[in-house]
């Protein structure tokens, strides 16, 4: 996709901008290949600290040093960290989201995808990937690639603070047994399309990594793995620390 196409196709960014301009009920419709379509209110991206799930508040409390917030959305995590005195760079692939963050006062904002070479020019003590942020890697292969790539983003002893979920519950039958194709792609790989009003974006891949899979991938990529917390929706918070 050319950059001009991606700039015009930005349903998430346009919904965030609409909310920022006062349209309180701006809502994104999320289509996926594993569940019914779901509404995602733009307001969710603007939540304050006490509106955040406990996993996210814990993650913010564990941040240290210079922080890179990947997939930063409307910047709610970056703004909270800034208010605590952290140096934060917020990055999103959505031009509209980047504009919203600039307007909201996030001091360092850039429009990049997670592999953009420009990001590797600096080293970070914490890479933050919240709101199921591991999903940015897209697929199982993408997760392995990203964990290797992140070596170039992290300072010595740096950490990735990330949330993800085990979505195997979507594949349970009436008896609670799991039913999925063991020869097919990993069950946590999902295809999404976002729509805002009449505008639909391109379909993209998102990965929900179960804890044992993430642990195996991260250890193979040279990280120490520490699961810090989980909630009752199968979501968990993990710290991946670069060894050596």
From TrEMBL:
Looking up InterPro entries in the UniProt record yields: Methyltransf_25, SAM-dependent_MTases_sf
Which processes are annotated in GO (biological process)? methylation
Q: Which Pfam families match?
A: Methyltransf_25
Q: Does the keyword Methyltransferase apply?
A: yes
Keywords of this entry? Methyltransferase, S-adenosyl-L-methionine, Transferase
Methyltransferase domain span: 67-158
As one GO molecular function, the record gives: methyltransferase activity
Q: Which domain of life is it from?
A: Bacteria
The name on file for this protein is: Class I SAM-dependent methyltransferase
**Where does this protein come from, organism-wise?**
Hymenobacter wooponensis
What lineage is this protein's organism placed in? Answer: Bacteria, Pseudomonadati, Bacteroidota, Cytophagia, Cytophagales
């Amino acid at each position: 996709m050319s950059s001009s196409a991606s700039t015009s196709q930005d349903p998430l960014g346009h919904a965030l901008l609409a909310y920022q301009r006062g349209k309180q009920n701006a809502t994104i419709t999320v289509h996926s290949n594993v569940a019914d379509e779901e509404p995602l209110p733009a307001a969710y991206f603007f939540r304050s600290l006490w509106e955040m799930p406990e996993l996210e508040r814990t993650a913010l409390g564990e941040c240290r040093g210079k922080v890179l917030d990947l997939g930063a959305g409307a910047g709610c995590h970056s703004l909270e960290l800034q208010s605590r005195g952290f140096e934060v760079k917020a990055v999103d692939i959505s031009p509209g989201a980047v504009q919203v963050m600039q307007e909201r006062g996030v001091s360092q904002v850039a429009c990049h995808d997670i592999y953009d070479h420009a990001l590797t020019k600096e080293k970070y003590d914490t890479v933050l990937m919240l709101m199921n942020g591991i999903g940015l890697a897209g697929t199982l292969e993408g997760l392995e690639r990203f964990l290797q790539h992140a070596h170039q983003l992290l300072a010595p002893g740096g950490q990735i603070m990330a949330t993800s979920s085990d979505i195997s519950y979507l594949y349970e039958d009436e008896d609670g047994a799991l039913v999925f194709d063991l020869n097919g792609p990993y069950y946590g790989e999902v295809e999404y399309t976002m729509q805002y009003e009449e505008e639909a974006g391109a379909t993209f891949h998102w990965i929900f990594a179960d804890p044992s899979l993430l642990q195996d991938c991260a250890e193979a990529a040279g990280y120490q793995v520490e699961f810090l917390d989980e909630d009752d929706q199968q979501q968990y918070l993990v710290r991946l620390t670069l060894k050596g």
